[in-house]
Amino acid sequence: MTEPASSDLIVGEDGLARPTWAARDPLLRAYYDTEWGMPIRDEQGLFERLSLEAFQSGLSWATILRKRPAFRAAFDDFEPDRVAAYDDSDRERLVADAGIVRNRRKVDATITNARATLALREREGLADFIWSFRPARTPQPRSYAEVPTQSAESLALSKALKRAGFAHVGPTTMFALMEAVGIVDTHLLGSHRRGSSGVWS
After folding, report:
1. Quick one: which of 104, 79, 100 has its CA closest to 91?
2. Catalytic pick among 43, 48, 53, 179
3. Domains in the chain, CATH or no CATH each
4. What domain of life does the UniProt record list for this protein's source (predicted)?
5. Is 131 considered catalytic here?
6. pLDDT per residue over 149-169, tens digit each?
7. Average pLDDT along the chain
8. How big is the chain by its Cα radius of gyration, in Å?
9. Does the structure show a pLDDT above 80 at 5?
10. 53 is catalytic
């Protein structure tokens, strides 16, 4: 068996190299192999990812991923029209829901962002808006140390979303979103997923 290109990669029993964060936990491994970094270009899919990245702030992604079914149930599968119509009783229901992250500020931001998503339909729509910040080049990291936590594009996206009425969309959170939905490819060189999105050759 060949050694992986980076000490931050682990070659599994299937012979595939994955980053250490995705190499052991079956849930994270499945997420890495099938979802992370794959293009999402629909409004509801992007609204869900935007919401979950905001909830993840300050927590581990594994925590959010384990709670994702409960999040989807609590937030009506992140259908923007339904979330935008939430009222104070919905806010109290969500803050009391032990299945999700009970953070009032993040709950409020999700409702705010659903309403801002609806408003964006009068322009290019959430998907085209977010994807318009795709950079000309993507990082080529060999190790975790070479993976940025934000970029000029994620900073610009953050500012643009805030101007459009969105909340809890800082540049680091937006860079994580860009990684998750394929706008940038930060799979480590040598990972079996590197270049698999079709967005970056």
Report:
1. 104
2. 53
3. 43-132+144-180 (1.10.340.30)
4. Bacteria
5. no
6. 999 999 999 999 999 999 999
7. 95
8. 17
9. no
10. yes
